[in-house]
Amino acid sequence: MRFIKRKRTLVFIFTAFTGAGFSLNLYRLQSSITLNWIPLVVILVTLLLTVQGIITLMWMLYAWEDPDTVNNNKSPVEFAYPSLSFTALVPARHEEKVIRDTIIAINKINYPDNLKEILVLCREDDVNTINRAAETITELGQKNIRLVTFDGFPINKPHGLNIGLWQARNSVVTIFDAEDEPHPDIYQIINTVMIRDRVDVVQSGVQLMNFRSHWFSALNVMEYFLWFKSGLHFFLKIGQATPLGGNTVFFKKEWLKTVGGWDENCLTEDADIGIRLALAGAKTRVIYDEKHSTQEETPPDLAGLIKQRTRWNQGFIQILQKGDWAKLPSWRQRLVILYVLFSPITQALFLPYIPFSFWVAFTQKLPVSVSLLSFVPLCLFILQVLISTVGLFEFTRAYKLKFPFWMPLVVIFTFIPYQIALMFSSFRALYRIIFNNNSWEKTQHLNDHRQPAPVLEMAYVK
C-alpha cells in the first residue's frame, strides 16, 4: 500500500480543489442575475460530503501515514508475569448455535486458571442457550466457569453485563460476545499493558472474518479492519479520545463500579461507558495487532446488518442527547466524540439527498462552477472504493487467506448499495428515536467465521 502513504498530498489537493471551486462559485453567483435555493442546497451538501470524505480518508489511511504511532500500539513482544485476574462476561441470548465453541475458546486462553473466570449470562427464558452452556460447562469440568441466569427488564446486553459485574470475582472485567474467538494470548497481552503503562481501560482489536459469505461481507469486514487498525489510533492521536468497542475491551473492576456500570437504557452501552469513564478520570489505551484480534462474523443477511447498524446509530444519538460528551475537559476530545456521535444524523440526511440529486441532474440547469464542485465528493468516493479494495488485499494477506481475483469487482459493484444500506440504517435510527422505540434488536450468529474462514495459527511468544 505504498501509494496510500501519499494521503496528505491527496487531501491537500482535494481541499485546494474544493476551496477553489467554492470561491469560483461564489464569484459567479454574485454576478448572476438570479440566485435560487437549488444551487445553495447543492453547494452546502457538496461541502458537507467533501469534509466528511476527507476525514474518512484520513482515518482510513492513518495507519500507513503514521506507522510509527501504530507500531507503538501493537501487542507487547515480551509478557509480564501474570498478576492481574480476569473475569470474562459472556452475554448470550438465543445463542445455542455458537455458545459452546465460544466457552471453549475463552477457556483456552493461555493464563493461570486461578486468575481467570468465565461468567455466561443468560435470561431465564432462554432455555436452549442455558442448556447448551450448562452442557459445555459440565463437559469442561472447570470450577472457574459459571452460568449466571437472571430475569427482569430491560431485555438487552447492558442489563446482563450489570448482573455479571456484581457477580465478578476478579480485578479486571472484560466482555466477549457469544460468537467470539479470542486469541489464546490476549490475557497475557492485557496484563502486560495494564501493568507496564498503568492504564485502567484497554481496547484490543476485533475482526470480522467471513468476507465471502454475503454480498456485503467484504465491505463489512473492511470497516472493522480499517477501523481497528487505523481509525481508533487516528482519533486517539488527534483528540485524546476514541469510542470503545462492545467486546475485547478490558476494565479495572473498581472503575466500572465507580461509574455505576453500564447504562441499561442505552443501545450502545460500550461507547457510553467509555465517555463516562473518561469523565471519571480513567486512563484508556488502544492496542491492536492483527494476529491477536478477536475473530467474529458478519450479520447473516441484509436485514440483520440494517438492524445492527440501526441499533448502533440509535445508541450514538442517545449519547448525543444525554450530553455527557460535552463535559469532557478538552475541546479536542469533545470535537472527536461529537464527530462520531453526530455521524448517524449526517448519514441519514444523505439518504433523501440521493433522489434529490437525480431530480436536479435531469431537470435543473446549474451554473458550471456548481456542477464542477459537485464532482469533488465523487472523486473522494472513488478513492474510498480504491482504498477498500487494497485494504481487503491487506486483510487477506495479514490473516493468510486467499484473495480471489474477482474480489475487486465485488467491492466496486457493492460499494454504493452498501452505503445506501448504511444510510437507511441511520434514517431508521432517527425514526425509532422520534417514536421512542428503544427495543433491542439482536444480531443472529451462525458460526460462519469458524467454518469457512480458517483461524489464524500463532505461536506462543514467551
Structural write-up:
The chain is α/β, with parallel strands linked by helices. 56% of the residues lie in helices and 9% in strands. It has helices at residues 7-30, 37-65, 67-72, 99-107, 127-140, 157-167, 186-197, 217-239, 253-258, 269-280, 302-322, 331-363, 368-373, 376-398, 407-434; strands at residues 86-91, 116-123, 145-150, 172-175, 201-203, 206-208, 249-252, 284-286, 294-296. It starts with 6 loop residues before the first helix and ends in a 28-residue tail after the last helix. Mean pLDDT is 88; it is low at 1-35 and 452-462.
- Which shape, going by the Cα principal axes? globular
Structural class: alpha/beta
Distance between the termini: 31 Å
Low-confidence stretches: 1-35, 452-462
Strand order within the widest beta sheet? 3-2-1-4-7-5-8
Which H/E pattern describes the elements?
HHHEHEHEHEHEEHEHHEEHHHHH
Strand element count? 9
Please indicate the percent range of residues in DSSP E strands (runs of 2 or more).
Answer: 5-15%
Rounded to an integer in angstroms, the radius of gyration calculated over CA atoms is 23 Å
- What's the number of helices? 15
The pLDDT mean sits at 88
| Major pleated sheet | 7 strands, mixed
Proportion of residues in helical segments: 55-70%
